[in-house]
Write a structure and sequence with these properties.
- The chain is mainly β.
- Among the domains are: about 5-265, Rossmann fold (3-Layer(aba) Sandwich); about 270-375, Immunoglobulin-like; about 605-745, Beta Barrel (Porin), CATH 2.40.160.20.
- It is built from 6 helices and 58 strands.
- Helix 1 links the parallel strand 2 (about 30-40) and strand 3.
- The longest helix is centred in the N-terminal third of the chain and has 19 residues, at about 80-100.
- The chain starts with 5 loop residues before the first strand and ends with a strand.
Amino acid sequence: MTRSLLFSLLLLPALASAAPASNAGSSQPVRRFALLVGVNDGGPGRAKLRYAVTDARSFGDVLEELGGVQPQDRMMLMEGGRAELEGALAKFKAMIAAAKTSGGRTEALVYYSGHSDEEGLLLQQDRFGYKELRQALESLPADVRIAILDSCASGTLARQKGGVRRPSFLVDASTAVRGHAILTSSSEDEVSQESDRIGGSFFTHNLVSGMRGAADATGDGRVTLHEAYQFAFHETLARTEQTRAGAQHPAYDIELAGTGELVMTDLRSTAAVLVLGEMLDGRLYVRDAPGRLVVELKKFAGRATELGLQPGRYTVMRESLGVGSQAELVLDQGGRFVLAETAFRPVGLEMTAMRGGGTPRLDGVKPAMGGSTVEGPAHQHRPINLGLFPSVQTNDLFGGTVDNNFSLALAAGRTARLNGVALALGANWATDSVTGLQLAIGGNVARADVTGGQFAVGGNWASGAVGGVQVATGLNIAQQGGLAGQLAVGGNLSRAPLSGAQLSVGTNWVQGAFDGVQGTVGLNAVRGRMEGVQMSVGMNWADTARGMQLSLLNVGDDVKGMQLGLINIAGKMSGLQLGLVNVAREMDSGLPIGALSIVKNGQFHIEAFGSDINFANTALKVGSRHFYTTVVVGMGHVSGAQGPSHWTLGFGLGGHIPVSERFFVDVDGVTHSVYDWDSSFTTTRLLHQVRVIGGFQVAKSFTLIGGPTMNLLHGVDGDAITALSTFSRQGPKHFIWWPGMQVGVRL
């Protein structure tokens, strides 16, 4: 267990000609190459590492996603020996040399994760000396050469890594060459450490977190070498102060020729962005769908922080002032998700202790792997509990904490863990988890997870996850969600993600992700991601909705699916809005249908035109970029009439097709009611049109429009009719169709 760690980040010389050390400061194209080596096997007598290969892949991923390394310029060597490493270095050198012939700047990065001792890297049965490594790096024909060595041994919660304690390698006078940077994970008399909780070494984990955006102190969307090192230094020191090996102090020695700073990652090239809101604070842990810790950082209120991540589902744990909370989110390809304070819901935190001693600390909902949980008092088991109320019951005769299979109380009963059934006229109280049923006229309380059901006339409370159903006349509350159904006359509240159904007369509320059905007369609210259906007579609210909202008033910040109601409001809408009034801030792919539809980034146009049917028409077109609804009012006369002989009121749906910056085509279908001029609102005929209207934008608010129409006219009562168009003299007939046209302007 007593081995030193050698973790060095070495940027060997840039060209002696003082080539710029920053790709940001050079006008020449930059091509970055990476060789990533991970070896868990350090040879006989050394335990195999768990995270050497994992760290190499993690560092390679961030280089490819944000560090400018193209897939064809990335080499990986996993579980190789000395011969394999020599071959990889030779091939790596040839790749860079071939790129130099085409001009431009080149940067070479070599990453090693594995065992080491005081003499060099330990590769299975072989050793590769530090002198050999430095010679191989210096021979690479690149403008900038970067070496990252993470040498480690195995352990549990906090383990020592590397060989014996001695000063970090290459920190001597022989390294004082022109243009270099040396970053070490620990000072010369310390060991470096890795953690099972993060699944890798502290320094590499924090370096990757910083390169994903946590280290972007200036907020310019780029992480420089200096920013990445400063972040890794402070985070590594903070997270190792209470470990068995003690605090770890990274060190550095940087000399780079040229101007500007070396940019390690560019967040503007990321596939998806997670924005940690300005007012959000606390220690944050970002995990991907499989549960891997992707980014960890201490966030302070006052400035937003952007993280470059891959698209997918993420869970963010937060520790602030000793209180734990959690948020769930989905990042779409090219998407940008702003994580605000309101997205988090409370969760429990457990103390974890370092194996072999040390002060316990908060590490999240579950203890870190290899750690030991600080347990509460010992539990006794008694099959049955009988009593009147908590101080007069059989459990109190035994003292301490008592678990039961069956509890019967006239007023109220209290157990620790319940694995069975609890009955009470007043209330049932479980100070721990419940597996089974709690039935009461008053209320049921479980201070941990519930697997089964809670049935009450008054209310049900579960502090943990609910895997079952809560039924009450009053109120159901689940603090940590889960697979659940909540049915109440009063209301349902889940303070965490919930999969199932919430049905009530009053209010349904989920503070987190929701998957299922919400039905109520009053209010449905999901302060997170809703996948399913919200049905209400009053109002539906969801931060993110994937499914259907059905109510008089529907509100969603990011909606994909359908809003059906009297009034529909969405921030970003993809799908169908069907209502009297539809409002959306952004609608790239969707269709609003209603009397009034307003889309901020969509269409809102007034048109004036003449046609073969009406000499004057006014139309309002509103909708998204590619779909719209239109309302048309017009008046016209037939040949020989003095003044207007009829007027029309029409409604239609259409599609907008941009052809060029100024030219477009609108294709729509419109149905008009035709009224005689002197017959008020009594319609006698219906006119159906298919229109293909081209438009040319002359000025910002002035567009010429015109095109052909196909028209079908028929009477509403079956009587024969006469054509209205100057292009058709047909009639009297029951149905009349003809080609027509319209010409006008759009304002």
